[in-house]
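Researcher: I'm comparing several assemblies side by side, and this is the next one on my list. It has 506 residues spread over two chains. Same procedure as the others: predict the full complex and return the structure.
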Amino acid sequence: MSEIADKVKKIVVEHLGVDESKVTPDASFIDDLGADSLDTVELVMAFEEAFSVEIPEDAAEKITTVKDAIDYIEKQKAA
Amino acid sequence: MQSTGLTSGQRRVVVTGMGIVSPLGLGVERNWSRLLAGENGFGRISSFDASDLPAQVAGEVPAGPTESGGLTLSDWIPVKDQKKMDRFIHLGLVAATEAVEDSGWKPESEEDRCRTGVMIGAGIGGLQTIYEASVTVKEGRARRLSPFFIPSALINLVSGHVSIKYGFKGPNHSVVTACATGVHAIGDAARMIMLGDADVMVAGGAEAAVCPLGIAGFCSAKALSTHFNDTPEKASRPWDRDRDGFVMGEGAGIVVLEEYEHAKARGAKIYAEVIGYGMSGDAHHITAPAPGHEGAFRAMQNAVRSAGLTTADIQYVNAHGTSTMADDLELEAVERLFGDDARRLAMSSTKSATGHLLGAAGAVEAIYSILAIRDNVAPPTLNLDNPSRESVIDRVAHTAQERKIDTILSNSFGFGGTNASVILRGV
């Protein structure tokens, strides 16, 4: 796993209080990890803070799984 | 005299569950035994650096293992949910959990859930949360504000969280009347049951204002004790000539109120009945009580009238008694109301042991008063070494007293000139 993926995973574990083993790439924040809509807003903010990136609202809405988050951040960082 | 208040209805309201978090620790029984032993919950403020403030003493809820009466939050609220709530909500939830479990009320049908409501207030609410969010905005990071900021700070969110946790779908309400909140919550919730809006109400108050804004704000209002920073245990001294302001406390007091027949039918343990409730407004000043505490007088008078009692029927008063100049005004008002009956009365201020829990005070003190009925003992007023005013009323200085107590009156008065008194009786 990349460094970004590791960090994303850590943030998800911390913010949603879930077991690390559940945070698989395909895990959906809301359907699999028990997040509600406010949790996801907070998660996106935590990603922004941790990776020093801006995630606009329309992009944030499309980040629904762990993999979505990793892909988005990796793309931003590569750009 | 015709009864005009709580006793005029067909439905009687009793207390079937109680929970306390206070500077004396977690749990009703721990609080009570420490209170009767003359212990106090004061120390120098530890949650932040108060060295640049004139008041440096407070009653903070002790951290520590649950089994020794300390607060270990993760024993009560999942870690991921803690950050969605200000501390006053944490404290309210912990006390509500004790109260609901103590009552044994677990509504299983949808109808029972819809007949169970919540009415928990606070005087100030999420002050520390608002402070931290303000700093974030001031730093130009408004976009970084937590989505949980608003629901963490809102006063009615203790009621919200309790209803979500237990599935209580009845009236979901909240009181905000400064330091009178706790009594208003109990009185208003009792009336909701009496009027048929619910059969069970979880009611009380929670507060956590031992934070820079809370202490500095009350310091500026010249309300806090400042001369006992090196002897915190002596700072709260109601009616004593050396008192110089109240000591801030934090915590929560929650009761489960229940319609009498409902409680009897399920074999619930019944602590006391809410038999009287009185309210008034001073129409005088934002922070100072009216001359002669005449608003307090009328609140007590209304409570006695609503109970259909005379003052001869009341053996114990839990005073508002904050350790400020107003203590003597309350004393005068009680003397005036009770007349000759004052000679047989015991009145104490348990704020001498807990400090002033603001919006939680009235509910915590109502619970202490219920225990006074249960055990026939009046809790003491600590530090009452030299009363600034003599009185025929026994203010239970220093040491608890065994007395026959079946009916009590508890007072709470708040900024804005709001006054509330509640009368409880053993069943």
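Model: For your comparison table: Confidence is low (pLDDT under 50) at residues 1-5 of chain B.
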